[in-house]
Design a protein that fits this description.
Length: 319
């Protein structure tokens, strides 16, 4: 059996401290905001898996289509011996890539979820005897230190999750990724693309209401972790397209005036009737725009692959 290593670079209590800081900052500013990373407790992760199967939510299927068709091209263009995957989650789509990389020596999945890393890691070493798996429990938006593994390295950031970062944070993130790469290494980036507003809004406001439930899950996380008394029924799910910023926003709209207590922060938060709390941005991209952002970070866009519908792109960049 090949080795499975798990390294924690996040202190056990870092998540709790980060949640407190984010909730305090986000709920005391105007307009109120919460960062999307707090959707993903065990229930939220399950809801996201359900979202990926909804008829309206095309990004996961579109990205999988590209991976299936282009995995061999990606492997040939990179010749990587180490694959680092940021926000690996279940590593499900990554299988297509791994299967096309026979010379791969080490897989480094990076995620904040300990359980997802263990599950995915154990399944993988069973399927790919000989592959080293060195999982990292880490927050990829902070400075990341990678294990010493054979190059060249391919860093993959799939799913379109880069769209959750506003432009200034994207620049910091991409510069951080650039700093991890040496000549010969590459970045594989998944980006959802600008398209018809009705298609975009439907993807974030599905008929079955799964995305609404996912959105409200952040309130349950705060209730459980910080003893808050959010009433999920007192908020409605909002998804809208900001045409100027070219991003989808998810919000929770307070249906009435209400006060919410957050005992762990010694905080009471007032919501006016109709007041909206922003819970996520999901930016959509164009080739020139993301190419420019990559260039600003010292990365050169070398390949651009889309699904047949032109809805989603995988780009490969080199230093
Ligand atoms: C996992 C961050 C890519 O922004 O589309 C899905 C999360 N939010 N439905 C996205 C999400 C609402 C998703 N990402």
């Amino acid at each position: 059996m090949s080795p499975f290593l798990l390294t924690r670079t996040l202190p056990e209590d870092a998540t709790e401290a980060a949640l407190r800081a984010d909730v305090l900052r986000g709920l005391t500013r105007t307009p109120k905001t919460l960062p999307p990373k707090w959707f993903y407790d065990a229930h939220g992760s399950e809801l996201f898996e359900k979202i990926t199967e909804l008829p309206e939510y095309y990004p996961t299927r579109a990205e999988r289509e590209i991976l299936i068709h282009r995995a061999v091209d990606i492997a040939a263009a990179t010749g990587s011996r180490t694959l680092v995957e940021l926000g690996s989650g279940s590593s499900d789509k990554t299988r297509h890539l791994l299967d096309a990389m026979p010379s791969l020596h080490t897989y480094v999945p990076v995620d904040v979820s300990d359980s997802a890393l263990r599950q995915a890691g154990e399944a993988l070493i069973a399927e790919r005897p000989g592959l080293d798996v060195h999982a990292l429990i880490a927050d990829f938006t902070g400075g990341l230190a990678l294990p010493d593994t054979p190059g060249p390295r391919l860093v993959a950031f799939l799913g379109g999750t880069i769209g959750n970062l506003p432009p200034a944070e994207r620049a910091v993130f991409l510069a951080g990724v650039r700093a991890l790469l040496s000549p010969g290494d590459a970045l594989l980036l998944g980006t959802d693309l600008v398209k018809d507003e009705s298609v975009l809004v439907a993807a974030y406001d599905d008929m079955a209401g799964v995305t609404a439930e996912f959105n409200k899950n952040v309130l349950s996380v705060i209730n459980r972790e910080l003893g808050a008394d959010f009433d999920a029924d007192a908020f409605t799910h909002v998804a809208l397209w900001d045409a100027r910023q070219e991003w989808i926003e998810m919000r929770l709209r307070s249906v009435r005036a209400q006060a919410v207590k957050v005992p762990a922060l010694d905080l009471a938060v007032d919501f006016a009737a109709g007041e909206e709390l922003r819970t996520e941005i999901s930016a959509k991209f164009r080739r020139d725009g993301i190419g420019g952002e990559l260039a600003s970070a010292g990365l050169e866009l070398a390949h651009w692959w889309t699904d047949r519908g032109g809805r989603f792109a995988l780009s490969l960049s080199v230093v």
